[in-house]
Amino acid sequence: xxxxxxxxxxxxxxxxxxxxxxxxxxxxxxxxxxxxxxxxxxxxxxxxxxxxxxxxxxxxxxxxxxxxxxxxxxxxxxxxxxxxxxxxxxxxxxxxxxxxxxxxxxxxxxxxxxxxxxxxxxxxxxxxxxxxxxxxxxxxxxxxxxxxxxxxxxxxxxxxxxxxxxxxxxxxxxxxxxxxxxxxxxxxxxxxxxxxxxxxxxxxxxxxxxxxxxxxxxxxxxxxxxxxxxxxxxxxxxxxxxxxxxxxxxxxxxxxxxxxxxxxxxxxxxxxxxxxxxxxxxxxxxxxxxxxxxxxxxxxxxxxxxxx
Length: 308
Hints:
By secondary structure, this protein is an all-alpha fold. It has helices at 3-23, 29-32, 64-97, 104-116, 126-135, 141-152, 158-163, 197-210, 215-226, 233-236, 248-260, 264-274, 279-286, 300-305; strands at residues 170-171, 177-178, 190-192. A three-stranded antiparallel β-sheet has the order 1-3-2.
């Protein structure tokens, strides 16, 4: 084999891994483990203490049904928490869009959100507000649950257990995560580590909300918004063609997991909670003192009663 061909065999895997890593890159390292890295907003409450909990040992479950139920019960409150905080920010964005003039602090918040969501438009312009509103939005629980289960082997993968990483996000700074076994020689990517599963959920949502690969997902979500609806997990799954090298097969697998595990139930519960929620009710969701109050069928009144 000629030296040129041998060199090509070495370069091609690196190029593939490099391109693949771009799709799975989470927040910058300085954001990833900072629980206060939400863009500063006075009305956004501090994260509740339970959001910092590590991932349980799901490998201890011998019964598959019990393991799945425990996985969903652990993750769903964290999805509601992340999405409710997005909705509070979204409401604030709408309030700014209706103003004739913004204060310096309001303009700073707007610019910081634009930077975080990679919106490069004239500050406070109509186009900036439009693009931010399309990106600052929720991801349906069924999709989050199915992808988390798929990517983390129901919370039992090495990256989930040691790095709280449920979605396979990559990072590229030395020591930012765990080195994958069998990583191609010369590659520098790691699988990102998070200080909590909640931060992994938030990073995953941000990735879908801002990366160009998932524009189709955002377009589908926008069409649902125009119907005053929240897009379902199966519908948004069509926008995940770039999430895996398996393409359409991956999309169908995620949809199958949603169907097989009846994850639409969580979408229905979430929609029932938030579609008619007022500002105060969203704040209660975003500051729930106990995660069990965010499970299906619970109410924030349960949270108040539990305080004795």
